[in-house]
Amino acid sequence: MWRNVLRKTTLSSGELELLTWRRGYSSSTSGHPARRFAAVWGNGDFGRLGVGTLDSQWSPKPINCSSFHHQSLKSIACGGAHTLFLTETGRVYATGLNDFGQLGSSDLIKYSREPVEVSGLAKGIVQIAAGYHHSCAITEAAKAVHRPTKVECLSGLTIKLAALGSEHTVAVTDGGEALSWGAVASGRLGHGLESSIFGFLTSNSEYTPRLIKKLEGIRVKRVAAGLLHSACIDETGSLFVFGDKVVANLGFGEAKNATMPSMINTLPYSEEVACGGYHTCVVTRGGELYTWGSNENGCLGIGSTDVFHAPERIQDPFLKSPVSKVSCGWKHTAAISDGKVFTWGWGGSHGTFSVDGHSSGGQLGHGSDVDYTKPTMVHVGENVKALEISCGFNHTGAIFGYM
């Protein structure tokens, strides 16, 4: 449990405060045009797009600068039915559904149609992440606080990365150790079957961060969390995956679950990883894109809906340049290549967060709710370059910079 983490982890002199909670063209503060802005598209239920309405957007729509007090944006994180924004000054804004407190606002607020600043956060936020029902931020001083109540056992650790899945979280310390907590089903936490007696789980959840022992001695540099599985990349470029693989989203054939991290040794040096509903994507050092797992609605981008049990390289003429970023939604995928956004997979909309009269798709950004089985470029405008991309349950957001 947590005592084991303390024995195996080098403590920092500064406190860790991983800020987690649950339950656009713009101008800078100086009056000059901001260097970066956010554009969003897809399902608009509960205001998750932050454009002031519940209407869905089938094409990219910039968010008005006034929502962020005319600040330039650094990153974006799309969750189940909410979205987080991080400004270059280290302030965090949230929009969308607040049924579990994922906006970090008053419980009296059911949802917000426009981004509102997350209250009670320390200054100097450097990273944000959004899960299905919860949110997270990491401070520059590497401090970690759990909202609404501080998790005292995290004091003394320095967190540099965090990824949020549907009901679990995976974090990485500055020493490369990986910790996980949340729902244990399907092995998504990577702890094996140690929490069971005679094969029966003694608990459905890990309530405090726990060291992933199978990764001891491995310095993790990237981490991703999906619906029921997780993945990480170590400093040598090796990929480790764990969790649900009923539809082979982990690349180990047709076995049921991988409850502890297992390495996929068929990939070149890996740089980026993303986990979706039931599929996984990896970007290699050479900018190659590999996908595998469930291919419902064409989310693998291979031109068909065939399931792939092992990594398959995407060799599409649209991707003429190396891929730099990739993100996975429930059943859709987005990537950045040469400053351009490409999307594919599920273009429709249904599920938990539908609102009568408003629910629609459009998360691919191609002007319709049609599925695409191959990477297709999203048209945003001239003289802009995509810098960051994030896929939510059925919406997508990106940060663009002016060229």
Automatic annotation (TrEMBL):
Gene3D superfamilies: Regulator of chromosome condensation 1/beta-lactamase-inhibitor protein II (2.130.10.30)
One of the Pfam families matching this protein, by short name: WD40_RLD
Keywords: Repeat
Ranges: RCC repeats: 36-89, 90-141, 176-236, 237-286, 287-339, 339-402
The RCC1-like domain, residue ranges: 39-396
The name this protein goes by in its record: RCC1-like domain-containing protein
Lineage per the UniProt record: Eukaryota, Viridiplantae, Streptophyta, Embryophyta, Tracheophyta
